Amino acid sequence: MTIKERIQNTLSDPGKRAPSIGAAFLLSLTVLFFGPSYMYYGNILEIPYFYSDMIWIFLAYSLAAAAIISAILLILKGTIHQRAVALVSALGLLFWIQGHVLVWDYGVLDGREIIWNDYLLNGIIDSAVWIAVLGVALFKAPSIYKHIAVASVLLLLVQGGGLAAEVYQAPDEPEWKSYAIGYDDTTMFEFSKEQNVVILVLDAFRSDIFQEIIDENDEYREMFDGFIYYRNAAGGYPHTDASIPLILTGEYYDNSIPRSEFVKTTFSNNSIPQTLMKNGYRVDLYPLLQHTIYQSKEVASNIGISERGQVDRVTDAMKGTIELQHLTLFRYMPHFLKSHFHFMPFVGTNRGDSTPHDLAFYNTLISEFNVSSEEKTFKFYHNVGPHGPLNLNADLHYEDLPFNETGYKEQAKASLKISGELVKQLKEHDIYEDSLIIIVGDHGALSAGHGVQNIVNTDLLSIGPALDGDEYRENWRMVAQGTPLVLVKPFNASGHLSISDAPVSLGDVPRTITSELQIPDEFSGQSILSINESDTRERKYFQYLSTNKSGQYYLELDYLPPLREYSINGHSWFRNSWAPTVQIYEPGQGLIPLPVYKSETEILFGKEGNAQTYQLAGWSGPEEGFTWTDGHNAVLAVQPENTDSDLALKITASPYLSGEALDQQRVTVYVNEHWVGEWLFDQPGTQEKTVLIPHNVLEGEIQYIAFEFPDATSPKDLGRSEDERDLAIAVHSMEIEGGQLWTQT
Q1: What is the predicted pLDDT for the residue at 179?
Q2: Considering the entire predicted model, what is its pTM?
Q3: Maximum Cα–Cα distance for the chain, whole Å?
Q4: Helix, strand or coil for residue 538?
Q5: What phi-psi label fits residue 715: left (phi over 0), alpha (psi between -120 and 50 degrees) or beta?
Q6: Which contiguous run of DSSP H or E holds residue 500?
Q7: d(Cα 370, Cα 377) in Å, to the nearest integer?
């Protein structure tokens, strides 16, 4: 018998063909087709590629892989063949289980480091499942072999049905994907001899870090000749999605309409790009995330020039396929392998890129800068800045930097050097004086080791106002994320970098530009250059709710998570300047009033609960069945339906004792600044505590309930994990009853 005949006999064996092909297709389609397809439709509004362009690549990869795996399996013989088929089918099953059942919450992949050791239990569960399934496949292969074909088909049908449901529920492809963004190197840095306006966004650049850098090295101070450093700046949001529209339109997104609709409406009706286009400027926009701007020829000169060509779409499809495959592997791999596939997708800083986004920006800036535009010019650039992943050192060399304060500052210096090169080029081409330059962070930063530094006043930075008249700590994460860098170089300005503590906001950028250009506008806010240090001004900020223990947030489809409004009165670096209001903006609803609390209604603090409506400050994100307090104080706002009699507060909570490391957690309870009682948690486990709220401390419609935790401690301080939250109690539920006198417990 010839080799050809042997191969034909092997491939034609019906007993081997069905299970081999079934197992091969289960594995290949699960990982190479269904996985990236699920990833796409779960993130359709953020992914800048078309599924219709990538589906053929998914199918080609899947079919090729299935053919190769099938051929290998069919060549094998006897029990080796059976075990190999069983293992391949088991892998297909395991990838599906990991991607759809054992889905752990690692937060949004936005470049920040994941503290892998905090998920050891998840890793143990994953490992146990993978070992068990692979063990059964290996040792029970002969008995399960005959069922593999049918089981594979059934699981593929389940995945097909699930994907069909995802496609049906997904919104339409956003309009902006149809247009090409003009990233022509020869025009990206083409400026006007007459007048230029430049906004350079350094993503996640925190204001206080700039202060540290210029204090430590005059080189960075000297880079910004003629600039004013507005130290007392406030952002609008903790992340990019709503911050970029705020910078370019001055409008705050309130969750009442889909984000894509808000971006389209505000950019088309009243935005800096649209206003300058109408006034004869060439407007070039270079966003880091395309969905943060509206791509239309009425908004920018380098957008909407033509529909994206076939060559561009094929190139994008290949890039998108690679990124989605990485994203799929991150989700489908067991915990202990996920770190090898962790990356930030869709922003040009992907795994394997030899040149980080900002370094490519710098190289193009040096090689292609020119002054040839006949029109006045507006340029908007959005760079990665010191946002993770941290991989660009101060010498502008690629380096894996530690994800801590040191690494953050190192990449911040790289961002400043790139910004300084832009300033240098403008000077060398004699257009610096005729340029208005605004360099901002779109938000501050929250990463391991980060926190607002004690530069202004150590005592004031460590305290905040308390409802009981004493001092309590506001969550430093709020301040760290809400204080972006703001640098402004007016027209014809020169001289050393100056510092101002005028109360400015990112929402002031549009009015600043039109004021300097003397263009009539309808923007809200004030010109940054007209605000004095002595001005008293209230600024607002919107914090994302629904965060997890790492401070990462959950995105709603085309909406932001629930937003808690904060009022900033005073210097933005002072924690006592930040006060939460009772205003919450729910996805699809916008502003919702604080609900009237009906007596004896249970407030639940877990993921499926309603407690976030009442939480003002000092709370971590909801977990399964409870929410930890975070810090030495926590505050609730409640509007009881009846305040004509005494009330009784009852909570169910568990203390953080960390085994036997802590003896107790003490809790002092205040209502409207009045002490009403104390609780002692000195035993582990869930406990019920009550306290009487006398009628004479009830004031107005809204009652503020504050808890003080003198024993709150972080697991990191105890050496238990990298969790930096100061934990005291995990609250499960709370009730308020009226008209009864309870014994305090």
Answers
A1: 65
A2: 0.79
A3: 101
A4: strand
A5: alpha
A6: strand 498-500
A7: 12
Q: Residue 458 corresponds to which tokens in the numbers above?
A: 């150590």
Cα separations in angstroms, 543 against 43, 239, 407, 639 = 22, 9, 25, 22
Half-sphere exposure of 17 (CA within 13 A, CB side): 8
SS3 195: coil
3 state SS of 197 = strand
Give all strands (DSSP E) within 170-265, no chain letters. Answer: 179-181, 190-192, 196-202, 228-230, 233-234
**CA-to-CA dists, residue 237 to 242, 244, 250, 385, 560, angstroms:** 7, 10, 13, 17, 10
Query: What is the three-class DSSP state of 729?
Result: strand
What's the pLDDT score for residue 19?
Answer: 86
Other Cβ atoms closer than 10 A to 310:
9
β-bridge mates for residue 498, sequence order: 228
Q: Are 366 and 185 in contact (CB under 8 A)?
A: no
Length of the chain, in residues: 745
* The residue type at 53: D
Task: Provide DSSP, 320-381.
Answer: HHHHHHHHHHHHHS-HHHHGGG---TTSS--TT-SS-HHHHHHHHHHHH-EEEESS-EEEEE
Give the tokens for residue 11: 């491939």
In this model, does residue 403 exceed pLDDT 60? yes
Residue 139: partners with Cβ closer than 8 Å, 6 or more residues away: none
Distance CA 408, CA 501 (A): 24
Look-up of token digits 């600039």: 227
Instruction: Look up residue 641 and give its two tokens.
Output: 């339906």
Taking all residues of the chain, what is their mean pLDDT, rounded to a whole number?
83
* pLDDT at residue 303, as a whole number: 77
| Residues whose CB is less than 8 angstroms from the CB of residue 543 and which lie 6 or more positions away in sequence, other chains included | 238, 478, 481, 482, 563, 564, 566, 580
By C-alpha distance, which of 690, 573, 707, 555 is closest to 631? 707
DSSP code for 429: T
Rg of the chain on CA atoms, in Å: 29
707 pLDDT more than 90: yes
For the stretch 122-166, pLDDT in tens is: 888 888 888 888 888 888 878 888 888 888 889 989 998 888 988
Strand partners, 229: 487, 499
Give me the half-sphere count of Cα atoms (radius 13 Å) on the Cβ side of residue 366: 9
- Asked if residue 59 lies in contact with residue 305, where contact means CB atoms within 8 angstroms, the answer is no
CA angle 361, 365, 367 (to 5 degrees): 120
Q: Give the mean model confidence (pLDDT) for residues 610-633.
A: 87
Which residues partner with 284 through β-bridges?
Answer: 379
Q: What is the per-residue pLDDT for 198?
A: 97
